[in-house]
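Progress against Task 2.4 (sequence-to-structure conversion) is shown through the following example record, which the project officer requested during the mid-term review.
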Amino acid sequence: MNDEFYMQLALNEAWKYQGLTYPNPSVGAVVVKDGKILAIEAHQKSGTSHAEVMALLSAYKTLTQKSINFSTSDAGEAHSFLLGLDNNFFSECTIYVTLEPCAHTGKTPSCASLLKTLALKQVVIGIKDPIEGHAGGASSLPHVTMGVLEKECSELLEPFMIWQNRAFVLFKLAQTSNGCIGGGYLSSKTSLTHVHQLREVCTTLLIGGNTVRVDRPTLDCRFTNGVAPDICIYSKKDDFDREIPLFSVPNREVKVTSELTFLDRPSFVLVEGGEGMLNALKEKIDYLLIY
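Structure tokens generated for the chain above:
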């Protein structure tokens, strides 16, 4: 096995949470000891433990066969726990992480500081943190390899870089196995759950006027018990029935607009629609998510 192999495992795991970590980047991490994979983890949600921390906690459980009696997503608890281990606990381990460990302290403590204290055998990084003020974590670590699968790690980071400057536009589309995108209800429970996870974190859910008129949707997050997103209806006419469920979900804003200048602002916009919206937004779409 080589560095590229382990980094690819970290990338694969991180892609499972692409978009769900907004406004944070999607990051994956793998911990290896003597050629044995101890953990494959990823950052899952903003404000929770970063990928490195999740991987180290998982590696601890693999090495000791012990459980952890706190939520692994609690970054403060997780850092305290890891820092309380014997100084040499991870000294023979190598960690692979797709993005340079954070040097700053924000909603969570610094991962670079944690890795420095834990004194791992090696830290292998995919790409340097491109955000000014966030980079520099690698410079504090003694044994670092930088730039492994850098191109692939850069591609993973693309949505994060886009929403720094304007809206990252993700268009969700459901189609049949032979490529049709209309003519009935196509979603499964698995795809609905994933969409509802994205709705929870997006800045705005953008839909077309015909979807509202014909489907009369609710567009909530009932499959994840999350907070329903704010809605923007793209339509030349504001002739909508305000009695449909869409307008009665509490604690959210529903706007009707005939222009798309709001896409110029840094944000994460999820679009749900069909052929009409796909054609209307074809110059604005960054990613297609096809079920």
